[in-house]
Amino acid sequence: EDEGMLLRGIAERPEVGFLSLFEAFGSLEVGRFFKDPLWPVWIAHAESHYSVLFGAAGVPAPHEERGGAEADVWYYDPLGRQDEEKRITIRPEQLSEPPDEDDLEVNGMIAKVIRTRWGRTAELDWNGAEPIY
Question: GO annotations under biological process (predicted)?
Answer without folding.
Answer: protein K48-linked deubiquitination; proteolysis
